[in-house]
């Protein structure tokens, strides 16, 4: 069987890919799986054959013969496979916690630079977070120990909506206040015109939008648009919402449904991580970056 | 006074020897009879011609030794053994990384010992390809004498394992022949006693999963405890599990617990049904959860064989995703992929 040659494919493996991270698996584990899958498949292609071994034999006083033999020192069984796991540089653009599932960006080889730029540009992300009213746990997540029970029947959809819109408004007002402008001024309008106001520090979580998309019995689902968030921040939001609604709540699921312009549609499931699938995904990702314009390289110094 | 003089004389001699000796100096030292090497050199020295003269004898075989290398590749073109290993398909790179204590052994090996071992393994019915794999996993087998290996195979014959069984055991479990007959006897006895197996059953387990017999006994005891005390299987049920799926005893206990917890507590499968399809305990809990939740969503989670639309537990976990989506869930692969992205 004629196999495709490995070097051109290795050369093409440069860029960003968008994968789907399942819950209960760390990002580092996922990265290791990706690297081992790629190097395994690369070594199954037609790789460089062992170089010849030039032997000069015979007595130096008489005639010497030069022959080329197969070089055992360059055999893959002796020096190891041609494409090794440590040769492949892979880094993630956004970190998702252990229990979070959803869209995750990986930069491969020179794509690690793009991943870094995207990370530093603080793009917004959208999450779908599920919670349950009536039970509070010690770590605010379903894995924790139950600390408190409460009634939840009095909580209605409109209570949740009301509280969430107040929360969103307070986050937005906070950002203008931190910028030092009056909400009712021309300066505030000019600032708002430019787009999202993002925190200078990449450690401060800010919520741009939060709404309830599903409310059934004790179960509810929120959709949150934010930057600089982390897993514990999400679970604590649910906990806080529970307390503010005069009940208690804990979080059951966190799913990242959008990262900048990458959505669940672009995300690649682990079972589709083949060379063909990855290269295909790389192509769609580069298209998305081209369309967006300033996702990787910002045009102005102010982050807008 | 006398003492110091003697010390001075000795010291003087030493300084002379340390310098490059000239003939006159050596002649003076010769009388003291102290430096025998110098004396020999004195006799050879006048015969040697100038170093600038052309030389006629062949000295091409003289070279420096190999300096410490960081892998086996430096020896590959000189060592016949390494070349034979490569032809057999032995992964020397793997040995170097994982079993580094075997590397000096390989470099010291002679082709004759290697040949006899390989031919012996082949005569048991193990193909050369499998012999390569065996040596990759257990290069320390060359430490064992050929007579010992023969005794160990004879032990298996004595225990009424036929040739096919022996070939399978040796090919599947590279470490088996490194254990003495006493140890193997003890290990087989452990299974016979703990699971109350008869001779035929012990042989069947050993052939089905040869790795299990030489596996760490502590681990097997722990898994037995997990199955018996934590999951609540009876002794006879453990026996049927080990006969049907011996691999379950080699799995990690936390993984086993998670699988059982999902199957029994979430899916509501009884112990009897798990025993009939013991293969589901080898399935990862996450995979089971994905598939079960998909069936729940389609309202197809019907695991009672006496009612219509029954889903077989083994076919549910065994096949790849595409087959599962179309055959078991009666849906499409695309729908299943879409569903996986909502978890």
Automatic annotation (TrEMBL), chain A:
Matching SUPFAM superfamilies: Pseudouridine synthase (SSF55120)
Molecular functions per Gene Ontology: pseudouridine synthase activity; RNA binding
Domain of life: Eukaryota
InterPro entries to which the protein is assigned, alphabetical: PsdUridine_synth_cat_dom_sf, PsdUridine_synth_N, Trub2
Signal peptide: none
Pfam families in UniProt: TruB_N
Occurrences of domain Pseudouridine synthase II N-terminal (ranges): 99-228
GO terms of biological process kind: pseudouridine synthesis; RNA processing
Family assignment from sequence similarity: Belongs to the pseudouridine synthase TruB family.
Protein's UniProt name: Pseudouridine synthase II N-terminal domain-containing protein
Organism whose genome encodes this protein: Dendroctonus ponderosae
Species lineage: Eukaryota, Metazoa, Ecdysozoa, Arthropoda, Hexapoda
TrEMBL record, chain B:
Top-level taxon: Eukaryota
GO biological process: mitochondrial ribosome assembly; mitochondrial transcription
Claim: Transit peptide is one of the keywords in the record: yes
InterPro entries found in the cross-reference section: MTERF, MTERF_sf
Keywords from the UniProt entry: Transit peptide
Pfam families: mTERF (PF02536)
Molecular function in Gene Ontology: nucleic acid binding
Signal peptide: none
GO CC entries: mitochondrion
Family from the record: Belongs to the mTERF family.
Name under which the protein is recorded: Uncharacterized protein
Native source species: Dendroctonus ponderosae (Mountain pine beetle)
Encoding gene per record: 109542254
């Amino acid at each position: 069987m004629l196999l495709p040659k490995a070097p051109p494919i290795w050369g093409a493996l440069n860029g960003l890919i968008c994968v789907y991270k399942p819950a209960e698996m760390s990002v580092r584990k996922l990265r290791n799986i990706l690297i081992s899958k790629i190097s395994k498949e690369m070594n199954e292609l037609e790789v460089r054959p062992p170089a010849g071994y030039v032997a000069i034999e015979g007595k130096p006083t008489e005639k010497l013969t030069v022959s080329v033999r197969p070089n055992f020192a360059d055999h893959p069984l002796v020096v190891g496979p041609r494409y090794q796991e440590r040769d492949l540089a892979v880094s993630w653009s956004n970190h998702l916690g252990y229990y979070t599932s959803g869209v995750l960006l990986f930069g491969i080889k020179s794509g690690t630079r793009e991943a870094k730029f995207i990370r530093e540009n603080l793009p917004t992300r959208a999450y779908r977070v599920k919670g349950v009213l009536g039970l509070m746990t010690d770590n605010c997540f379903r894995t924790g120990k139950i600390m408190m029970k409460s009634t939840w029947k009095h909580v209605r959809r409109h209570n949740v909506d009301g509280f969430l819109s107040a929360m969103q408004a307070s986050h937005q007002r906070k950002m203008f206040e931190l910028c030092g402008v009056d909400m009712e001024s021309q300066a505030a309008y000019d600032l708002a015109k430019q787009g999202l106001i993002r925190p200078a520090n990449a450690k401060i979580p800010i919520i741009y939008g939060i709404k309830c998309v599903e409310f059934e019995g004790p179960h509810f689902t929120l959709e949150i648009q934010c930057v600089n968030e982390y897993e514990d921040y999400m679970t604590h939001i649910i906990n806080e919402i529970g307390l503010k609604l005069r009940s208690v709540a804990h979080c059951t699921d966190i799913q990242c449904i959008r990262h900048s312009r990458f959505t669940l549609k672009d995300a690649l499931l682990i079972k589709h991580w083949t060379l063909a699938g990855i290269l295909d995904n790389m192509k769609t990702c580069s298209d998305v970056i081209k369309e967006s314009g300033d996702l990787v390289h910002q045009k102005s110094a102010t982050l807008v | 006074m006398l003492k110091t003089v003697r010390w001075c004389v000795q010291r003087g001699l030493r300084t002379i020897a340390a310098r490059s000796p000239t003939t006159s100096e050596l002649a003076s030292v010769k009388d003291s009879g102290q430096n025998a090497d110098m004396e020999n050199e004195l006799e050879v020295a006048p015969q040697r011609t100038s170093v600038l003269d052309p030389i006629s004898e062949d000295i091409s075989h003289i070279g420096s030794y190999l300096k410490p290398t960081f892998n086996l590749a430096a020896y590959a073109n000189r060592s016949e053994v390494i070349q034979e290993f490569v032809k057999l398909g032995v992964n020397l790179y793997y040995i170097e990384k994982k079993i580094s204590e075997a590397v000096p052994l390989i470099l010291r090996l002679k082709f004759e010992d290697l040949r006899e071992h390989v031919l012996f393994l082949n005569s048991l019915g193990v193909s050369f390809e499998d012999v390569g794999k065996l040596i990759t996993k257990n290069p320390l087998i060359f430490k064992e004498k050929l007579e010992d290996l023969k005794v160990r195979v004879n032990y298996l014959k004595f225990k009424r394992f036929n040739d096919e069984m022996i070939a399978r055991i040796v090919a599947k479990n590279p470490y088996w022949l490194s254990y003495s007959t006493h140890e193997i006897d003890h290990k087989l006895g452990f299974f016979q006693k703990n699971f109350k197996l008869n001779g035929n059953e012990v042989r069947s387990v050993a052939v089905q999963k040869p790795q299990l017999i030489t596996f760490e006994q502590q681990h097997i005891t722990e898994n037995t405890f997990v199955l018996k005390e934590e999951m609540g299987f009876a002794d006879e049920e453990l026996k049927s599990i080990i006969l049907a799926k011996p691999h379950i005893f080699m799995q990690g206990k936390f993984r086993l617990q998670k699988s059982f917890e999902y199957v029994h507590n979430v899916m509501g499968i009884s112990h009897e049904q798990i025993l009939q399809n013991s293969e589901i305990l080898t399935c990862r809990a996450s995979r089971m959860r994905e598939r079960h939740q998909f069936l729940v969503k389609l309202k197809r989670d019907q695991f009672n064989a006496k009612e219509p639309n029954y889903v077989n537990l083994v076919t549910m976990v065994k096949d790849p995703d595409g087959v599962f989506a179309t055959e078991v869930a009666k849906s499409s692969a695309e729908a299943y992929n879409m569903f996986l992205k909502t978890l």
